[in-house]
Write a structure and sequence with these properties.
By secondary structure, the chain is mainly beta. Helix content is about 10%, strand content about 40%.
């Protein structure tokens, strides 16, 4: 059977409709913040904070995602930037070890989408809150090294 031009157009139109249904939404927010929180690692006596940003549409080529965390110790915010890469489904931002985390206190995180010219395209404010003070952590790491050997310098060890 030979397809007529009208039939070929219909198949082509269906293909374009199906293809557009599979592509990401290209309007609205660039990202959403999918979650975050504090991690208290008792073994190494460290507290960190983190958030996850999930693209909702194509991010600008050559752009950057930036997370600005309130610093629990005071002073300037902790800034972490990641380059935008094609096909990346998630961007994870984790702070270096923190000091001064207080239970019940709100800490602000701003995740920004920045294009290659440095223009902010979107900013999402997010709030982190810990149930615990950092004082629950031991003064020094309980373990050291990749094998979690007992830390001989920790006075809490017997």
């Amino acid at each position: 059977m030979i397809a007529t031009p009208a039939r070929t157009f219909s198949v082509g139109a269906l293909f374009l409709v199906a293809l557009s249904a599979c592509s990401p939404e290209e309007s609205g927010d660039y990202i959403k913040v999918g979650g975050g929180g504090f991690v208290f690692n008792y073994r190494i006596a460290e507290a960190t904070a983190g958030v996850i940003a999930e693209p909702q549409r194509t991010l600008p080529a050559g752009g950057t995602l930036e997370a600005r965390f309130d610093n629990p110790a005071g002073g300037p915010p902790i800034v972490i930037a990641k380059e935008v890469t094609a096909d990346r489904k998630r961007y994870s931002f984790t702070t270096p070890p923190l000091t001064g985390v207080e239970g019940g206190k709100a800490y602000r995180v701003a995740v920004r989408v920045i294009d290659d010219a440095g223009t902010e395209l979107q900013s999402v404010d997010y709030e982190l809150r810990s149930e615990f003070d950092q004082s629950i952590l031991p003064e020094k790491a309980l373990t050291v090294g990749p094998g979690y050997d007992i830390n001989p310098d920790n006075p809490e060890q017997e």
